[in-house]
User: Which sequence fits this backbone?
């Protein structure tokens, strides 16, 4: 206390020696043009003059002495830790000069809104690592103590700043980072940075209740969905089986059986018993493979190609054409599985609708390879082409042979059941090269199911 008194005496003597004679006044004699809030050129309030206290550079002081000297007011102020001396020169009611000894600043009068409630944007809980502060409309709860509002002053326009005083205790706060963080200064605690209470933390109990109810609804929906899924899967299986059987009946159509047996009978009548026996064996093996594959949804590529080879041998009894099957090195025919008898209808169409009406050399090629992670089967012939074949068969250009429709239905069910992207692309070669004729069928199947 002795040091503080000596400092106060020193400032008093200094003011008398440096400024000359002036009249002492009390804070209540300060004019309205001096009282209020003052901003610098950055629109920051750096000086607040009230009848009971004064704030300069965000620090709260109480009056010790005020000396009026013409247009100057010389202040000696103090708080629990500091003693400060400064003067103001009032130019008019809207501006003044602040002389702090080491610098002089020109300030302009602020017209902040005097509030009776804390701004709504500040309300709620704020948290720092070591403290919590609650802003309500008419009070602050901080460190276990409740502070009733004495005065709230909005600061720079467009900023969420405010100052609150209560019984010589002073709060200065402003928000930043779009209102997420708050900097709080008190005359007894220095600066602290607080985080806005998150939506999750504020409504934790409500969120927990909603989550529990939602989880129960989700469990119920999943249970119902599983029942529907199982039911739909059974329906899909039945459809798949029906289409599979239709495909088998399509392969074993009466025309093919009659033509094959008639051709073998013709060989017997000609006395070519060896050749007749050979084709009879091929026919019986084809029937056996067909019946075996009819019990399976998927068969090895080897078995399917073997069935196609025997089918081609029998078809060659009716008329002459050249066929070849090419398998890429990377294709393992014994490990890769495909839907049973999926390729055969396209081979049959190439022969019956493409090569049959072709004059001259007839060629059918089947290529098996792996392309972009899929098994690719190319069936290409040099027949009359699909466009001409459809014109010959029907005036309806959208006509699709029964075997092709079954194959596409099967692929749709495969994609639905196995979540794959199997597809068929049919191209008339004449659309690509007018000097050529024929049809190219591309079948893309997954490598794994």
Assistant:
């Amino acid at each position: 206390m002795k040091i503080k008194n000596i400092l106060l005496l020193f400032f008093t003597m200094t003011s008398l020696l440096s400024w000359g004679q002036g009249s002492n006044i009390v804070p209540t004699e300060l004019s309205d043009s001096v009282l209020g809030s003052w901003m610098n050129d950055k629109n920051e309030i750096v000086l607040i003059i009230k009848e009971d206290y004064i704030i300069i550079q965000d620090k709260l002081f109480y009056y010790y002495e005020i000396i009026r000297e013409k247009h100057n007011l010389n202040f000696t102020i103090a708080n629990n830790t500091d003693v400060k001396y400064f003067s103001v020169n009032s130019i008019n009611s809207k501006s003044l000069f602040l002389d702090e000894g080491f610098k002089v600043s020109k300030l302009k009068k602020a017209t902040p809104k005097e509030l009776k409630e804390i701004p709504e944007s500040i309300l709620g809980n704020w948290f720092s690592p070591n403290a919590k502060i609650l802003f309500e409309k008419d009070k602050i709860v901080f460190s276990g103590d409740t502070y009733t509002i004495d005065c709230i002053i909005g600061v720079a326009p467009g900023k969420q700043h405010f100052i609150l005083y209560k019984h010589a205790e002073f709060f200065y706060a402003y928000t930043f980072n779009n209102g997420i963080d708050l900097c709080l200064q008190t005359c007894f605690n220095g600066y602290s940075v607080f985080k806005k209470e998150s939506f999750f933390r504020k409504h934790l109990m409500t969120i927990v209740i909603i989550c529990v109810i939602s989880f129960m609804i989700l469990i119920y929906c999943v249970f119902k969905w599983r029942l529907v899924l199982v039911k739909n899967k059974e329906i899909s299986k039945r459809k798949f089986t029906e289409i599979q059987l239709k495909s088998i009946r399509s392969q074993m159509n009466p025309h093919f059986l009659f033509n094959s047996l008639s051709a073998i009978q013709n060989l017997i009548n000609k006395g070519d018993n060896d050749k007749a026996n050979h084709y009879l064996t091929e026919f019986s093996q084809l029937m056996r493979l067909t019946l075996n594959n009819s019990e399976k949804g998927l068969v090895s590529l080897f078995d399917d190609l073997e069935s196609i080879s025997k089918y081609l041998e029998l078809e060659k009894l009716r008329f002459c054409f050249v066929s070849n099957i090419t398998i890429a090195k990377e294709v393992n025919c014994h490990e890769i599985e495909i839907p049973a008898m999926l390729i055969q209808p396209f081979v049959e169409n190439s022969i019956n609708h493409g090569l049959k009406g072709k004059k001259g050399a007839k060629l059918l090629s089947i290529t098996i390879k792996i392309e972009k992670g899929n098994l690719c089967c190319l069936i290409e012939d040099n027949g009359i082409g699909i466009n001409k074949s459809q014109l010959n068969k029907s005036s309806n250009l959208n006509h699709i042979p029964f075997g092709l429709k079954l194959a596409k239905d099967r692929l749709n069910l495969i994609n639905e059941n196995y979540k794959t992207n199997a597809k068929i692309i049919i191209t008339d070669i004449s659309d690509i090269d007018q000097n050529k004729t024929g049809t190219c069928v591309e079948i893309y199947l997954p490598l794994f199911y």
Remarks:
- Confidence is low (pLDDT under 50) at residues 1-20, 156-161, 395-400.
- The longest strand covers residues 59-69.
